[in-house]
Write a structure and sequence with these properties.
Layout lengths: L1 H10 L1 E5 L5 H10 L3 E5 L7 H5 L3 E2 L3 H6 L3 E4 L4 H9 L13 E4 L5 H12 L4 E4 L2 E2 L1 H7 L2 E6 L2 H11 L3 E8 L3 H29 L4 H9 L6 H12 L8 H18 L4 H15 L10 H7 L3
Parallel strand pairs: 1-2, 1-4, 2-3, 4-5, 5-6, 8-9
Antiparallel strand pairs: 7-8
The protein binds NADP nicotinamide-adenine-dinucleotide phosphate.
NADP nicotinamide-adenine-dinucleotide phosphate binds next to α5, β7 and α7.
């Protein structure tokens, strides 16, 4: 029985749409794991590495769906996912009944639920499975994956998630994965705000921020953000990491959803305002720890 299951996993044909910073290394990991893979990228130049590795290069998301049982998506934003699934030449026009669409982009939870309902009308399942861990996690196959959808569909896609990530959690029904990702972005944004304020306070008090960070790392104030983003702030080096403009996109999803569900998020609102100010200063391509630069310019 187990052996048969393993064969089924290997025999499933996979598709991947969106070969950006994240999608390219993720799809390469699936290809290297020995699965049959069909891929599409709007700019076909980015698909060459995969074609060389043995993947089939398709001319549209529809063609990917025609060649696959499970179709992964990793594109930029909510309208892009909508276009890739439902647009002319979209996945829905090529997918067979019984196939599964796995959206790994970070998009709106509310729209995700609607997309899942529209796909279900054609007997196509959807799993929302946004990711955390950045380009490094995508390359090393150590992403965190937070999934929403039916337990059956999740069980079918989990063996493939295991080639992409390490911490894989089935959070709930469709949209729950995107809610978890929004929570992730709230914690990171508010933590960056807190670390920025602490390091600014130390600086203004004439105390060495490096020593403060070192001292705080051993106690309850220590965190990944204190470690990684704090270091970026102290070195005045904002090479991304995670670009401020992408963090702004995600905080837009957070704040829009919060307005709809009537959640009061004052910390997230403040961090969003400071990311906006970083964008206005032309720092959208920098890491979102550039919030520190925004605060530094302000004088009370
Ligand atoms: P990226 O490098 O900018 O790549 C975006 C991809 O989406 C490209 O392949 C792009 O195609 C494609 N695309 C965008 N709009 C499209 C459309 N309308 N139709 C078809 N293809 C479209 O972005 P990324 O960093 O890989 O991020 C992808 C997703 O993962 C985003 O939702 C992001 O928030 C999320 N994410 C990113 C990170 C990170 O550290 N970068 C971490 C966690 C989650 P072209 O090449 O033709 O432009």
């Amino acid at each position: 029985m187990l052996a048969r299951y393993a064969e089924d996993v290997q025999e499933m044909k996979l598709g991947f749409v969106g070969l950006g910073i994240m999608g390219l290394p993720m799809s390469l990991n699936l290809q290297r794991a020995g699965f049959t893979l069909s891929v599409y990228n709007r700019n076909p130049a980015r698909a060459q590495t995969l074609e060389k590795a043995g993947a089939k290069l398709c001319r549209s998301p529809k063609e990917v769906a025609e060649n696959a049982d499970i179709i992964f998506i990793c594109v930029s934003d909510t309208p892009d996912v909508e276009q890739v699934i439902f647009g002319t030449d979209g996945i829905i026009h090529g997918a067979k009944a019984g196939s599964i669409v796995v959206d790994m982009s970070t998009i709106s939870p509310e729209e995700t639920k609607k997309f899942a309902r529209r796909l279900a009308e054609k007997n196509i399942e959807m799993i929302d499975a946004p990711i955390s861990g950045g380009e490094a996690g995508a390359i090393t196959g150590t992403l965190s994956i937070m999934a929403g959808g039916s337990a059956e569909a999740f069980a079918r896609v989990k063996p493939y998630f295991e080639k992409l990530g390490k911490n894989i959690v089935h959070v709930g029904t469709n949209g729950a994965g995107q809610v978890a990702k929004a929570c992730n972005q709230i914690v990171i944004a508010v933590s960056i705000e807190a670390v920025s304020e602490a390091l600014l306070f130390a600086e203004k008090c004439g105390v060495d921020g490096r020593k403060v960070r070192e001292a705080l790392m051993g106690g309850f104030a220590g965190s990944k953000v204190m470690e990684v983003h704090g270091n970026r702030m102290l070195n005045d080096d904002y090479k991304p990491g995670f670009k401020a403009k992408l963090h702004r996109k995600d905080m837009g999803i957070v704040m829009d959803t919060a307005a709809k569900v009537k959640a009061f998020l004052p910390g997230a609102a403040l961090a969003t305002r400071h990311i906006d100010e970083a964008l206005e200063a032309g720092d959208g391509e920098l890491d979102s720890s550039a919030i520190f630069k925004v605060l530094r310019k302000k004088v009370k």
